[in-house]
Amino acid sequence: MQYSKVSVIAPARLHMGFIDLSGALGRHFGSIGVALNEINTRLTIRPANHLTVTGKSASRAEKCARKLCMALNLPDSFSIEVEASIPEHVGLGSGTQMSLAVGMGLNHYFGLNLTVRDIARLTDRGMRSGIGIGVFERGGLVVDGGRGERTVTPPVLANMQIPDDWRFILAFDKRGQGLHGKQEVQAFEALPPFPQQEAARLCYLLMMQGLPAVAEHDIVRFGEVVTQLQRSVGEHFAPAQGGIFTSSEVAEAMAWLEAQGCVAIGQTSWGPTGFCALQGAEQAETLTEQTRRQFSHHPHLSFITVSVSNGGGQVSAV
């Protein structure tokens, strides 16, 4: 069955860090992250005489569509309107979510019966982290198991609902972008070996403190684990990104927010976007406004409050 309209919403994600960069047990990476409500990629697919793509990040969406049409032998008789797109290369998973949004939209439009992981494989997503795939599938908090010898896409090991009153404050630096593409690959290749003992410590912290804290709605304990993980991985990546944070001004803002009581201090992926967490929607909005005033002398910085999407990607067809 071919629908007259298919709409997709793909949530942005915070990548809170890798768990095992040592690969000592034969699996590399493994990571933790959450899906976001307020930042997403939204697009609509409709019938057309030939492929046309309009809206935000249209070239990226068109590239995904053409790749999938070629791989799946699909006719290009449709249009894509991208109503919103996740900012590119700032650590929010824009590439993966665009690929999955286009792919799952075409899956429903043509009735292909493909899974999210089928689309990820066809579009070469999940080569290191499985968080973007996991948050589209399930939403909430996701822990993936990294890549083993036979891994196609990193498996989800844990998926948990985040309490409704938890909020994250994001700090953006509009002057730069995080490492991506060839630069990202080269950075990974140039980094020194990650200590096996430190990887074991991070796994232990996550398993026996971080995840139980989410289950018991203990944002402080959860935040302590995320901050430790972020510091450890950030120090490892520091030679490639110039410090624990890519942006020194974002680092300054995160330190100030930590002093105000925020927890889970970190940078998502290669940044430059920073994040921190606190409990209570009203408190978060108030503190976000205070932060804007505090850092008004840095006009390139901006701050927003976001909540966690516990539902994942959404596809609707008529």
Descriptors:
single chain, 318 residues, alpha+beta, 7-stranded mixed sheet, 4-stranded antiparallel sheet, 11 strands, 39% helix, 26% strand
Beta-strand proportion: 25-35%
Give the tally of β-strands. 11
Summed over residues and divided by their number, the pLDDT gives a mean of 94
Distance between the termini: 11 Å
* Shape, per Cα inertia axes: globular
**Main beta sheet strand tally, sense and closure:** 7 strands, mixed
Structural class: alpha+beta
Low-confidence stretches: none
H/E series, N to C? EEEHEHHHEEEHHHHEEHEE
Count of individual helical segments: 9
Proportion in helices: 25-40%
What is the gyration radius calculated from CA atoms? 19 Å
Record the SSE blueprint:
Elements: E1 6-20, E2 29-47, E3 52-55, H1 58-72, E4 78-84, H2 94-110, H3 116-122, H4 131-138, E5 141-144, E6 156-160, E7 166-173, H5 182-190, H6 196-215, H7 219-241, H8 248-259, E8 263-267, E9 274-279, H9 281-294, E10 301-306, E11 314-317
Parallel strand pairs: 3-4
Antiparallel strand pairs: 1-2, 1-11, 2-4, 2-5, 5-6, 7-9, 7-10, 8-9
Notes on the protein architecture:
The chain is of the alpha+beta class and 318 residues long. 39% of the residues lie in helices and 26% in strands. It is built from nine helices and eleven strands. It has helices at residues 58-72, 94-110, 116-122, 131-138, 182-190, 196-215, 219-241, 248-259, 281-294, and strands spanning 6-20, 29-47, 52-55, 78-84, 141-144, 156-160, 166-173, 263-267, 274-279, 301-306, 314-317. Strands 1, 2, 3, 4, 5, 6 and 11 form a seven-stranded mixed sheet that branches. Strands 8-9-7-10 form a four-stranded antiparallel sheet. Helix 1 links the parallel strand 3 and strand 4. Helix 6 (196-215) runs antiparallel to helix 7. The longest helix has 23 residues, at 219-241.
